[in-house]
Design goal:
This protein has 6 helices and 7 strands, in the order βαβαββαββαβαα. Strands 1, 2, 3, 4, 5, 6 and 7 form a 7-stranded mixed beta sheet that branches. β1, α1 and β2 form a beta-alpha-beta unit. The radius of gyration is 16 Å and the shape is globular.
């Protein structure tokens, strides 16, 4: 059994659907202290390392810990979690008709330590304005990197994909399962 050190319901669902036995422990982490001026793959790796350090200070006795974080980037511009509807709209407008990548870093701490950064890149068609407005109003973008939900709103606009869908949802299951 592994311990998912994350409050993400999406990551929990990924593990559940993959048949991986786990227990979830939620904890608060403030990503704002990590510089977003870094390249996305370095930024997301720094976030997950900082999460691991913070969690282990309070829970050092636990084993088989899984930490993960994701960020969305259009070019080298990192799109964090939108603070409000206007910021979400700005992020989604950057994605509309554009190519964007989701970077997911994970660290597994058990008998060994696995550190991985994976990337999935999408090309999106132009978003329909009425559909976008409806998505913003329903609030599903809240708490999501780049206001992106690849399993819902963004899915219908994908014209091409390079990489694992699970990476875009917050955890590269293919790599994790290979090491478990």
């Amino acid at each position: 059994m592994i311990v998912l050190a994350s409050s993400s319901p999406t990551r929990a669902n990924l593990l559940k659907n993959a048949g991986i036995e786990f227990k979830q422990i939620s904890f608060d982490f403030d990503e704002s202290k990590i510089a977003k001026s870094l390249k996305p793959e370095i930024y997301v790796q720094n976030v997950v390392k900082a999460k691991k350090e913070q969690f282990l200070k309070a829970n050092g006795e636990l084993l088989n810990l899984l930490f993960a974080d994701s960020c969305v980037a259009c070019g080298d511009q990192i799109l964090g979690k939108a603070k409000d509807e206007n910021e979400a709209l700005d992020m989604l407008n950057l994605q509309s008709g554009n190519e964007c990548s989701v970077y997911t870093a994970m660290i597994f701490v058990g008998k060994f330590e696995l550190i991985n950064v994976s990337k999935t890149t999408y090309k999106f068609a132009k978003f329909d304005e009425q559909d976008l407005e409806k998505y913003l109003k329903n609030g599903d973008w809240q708490g999501k990197a780049g206001a992106m939900t690849i399993e819902n709103f963004n899915k219908k606009y994908i014209t091409s994909q390079h990489g694992e869908t699970s990476t875009a949802m917050g955890l590269n299951l293919k790599i994790l399962k290979a090491f478990l």
